[in-house]
Amino acid sequence: MSPGPARLKRSLGLFALVAYGVGDILGAGIYVLIGKMAGLVGNACWLSFLIALVVASLTGLSYAELSSRFPRSAGESYYSLKAFGRPLLSYLVGFLVLISGVVSMAVVSQGFTGYVTALCPFLPGPGVILCFFLVLTVINFWGMRESSVTNIFCTALEISGILIVIAAGIGAFGRVNYLEISPPAGMKVSTALSQGAVFAFYAFIGFEDMVKAAEESREPEKLIPRAIVWSIAIVACLYVLTALAAVSVVPAGELAKSQAPLALVVKTGFPGIPPALFTLIALFAVTNTALVNFVMGSRLLYGMAREGLAPEAFAHIHPKRNTPDRAIIALLAVALPLALAGSLATLAQSNSLILLTVFFLVNVSLTVIKLRPAEAIPPFQIPVVIPILGALTCLFLIFYIQAEAFVIALSLVALALCLYLFAPSHRKNKARQNGA
Description:
- The protein is an all-alpha fold.
- The protein has a single domain, classed as Up-down Bundle (Amino acid/polyamine transporter I), CATH 1.20.1740.
- Helix content is 72%, strand content 0%.
- The protein has 18 helices and no strands.
- It has helices at 14-26, 30-41, 45-69, 76-84, 87-119, 125-142, 144-170, 189-204, 220-249, 252-257, 261-269, 275-306, 325-341, 345-349, 351-370, 385-398, 403-420, 424-435.
- It is globular, with a radius of gyration of 21 Å.
- The two termini are 38 Å apart.
- The model is unreliable at 430-436 (pLDDT under 50).
């Protein structure tokens, strides 16, 4: 009797899942976004984090129930397929999530190269990018446990950097008015808070990746929802405390002008700490972001291929390592040229729009599923009002995104439609229609 097809190894517990979530959400964003938010909102930039927290929490709870109902690696694409039964919509959702992850990998690899070349200016940028991706590929290919160990190490360093910033501000807490909002000239207070929330929401992105590890979790129906809630809660506390510490130590106007605002906070609050320390922490932060995007993106492509929404070749599992080897190679083949091209700034700006659109569809999908009378009760469930509010809050933030991002997003949708013509599920549906 021949053995069945290879499956992903279930090796992740709650601690490892929370570490992945916290590591992916923290990433590199918090190290650069505080300055931009301070320039928009002033001392009250922590309020923008709270607005973003509401949006992220509502959508995170929707993800938690959906992962409990359908513990599949395909994530968002599978959820929309179960809700609407439309392969095209399912493909578009999965494609947008996948592209967002690939672009994020390329962007953070450039950030990594910038930090490395700042320390070692004699190193060639393209060579650093190539080595960076090769190391990530080896870790991803070797196995989820190895990726998890690397992630936990990097996450610990990321959190330590944030804790240093918070500690630097402890002695200065209470020195400023934390409700003082100082928007740029000509901008309304409400607009400043909302645009600040768009930046803050970008810093929360990452919790959605956790559902891609469902098939490598020991008890996905129970552990994934708990891990999502814990990850968002931990990161929210760190973000709010970091924002309060930053404006307590350094005036908001100076933070807005700094290219490394948190390093400036540490330099001012803890003059004895070497500046190179934060550079090293930032290197680990961007490495962790790229690794988690790589791991989860390859699992998403694997899941889509298994559902017939991507070429079947990407559903292959390496017989010894139990990892989606072909999906890993495919993502490397796309992300590496993008990183080497060096023209990703405008694409990166569209990430928030792309993912907010996906989150809107995820919330709508859960609403549709919950309103069906014949649906089974999952181990974890939320009131139907939560995904409805989640969808509305996503639309609220989309309203404040710059127009250029819409052009990029629509271009990616057009590309997705072209690629869908060659998807196996589309060819099968077309063949059935012709046969009829």
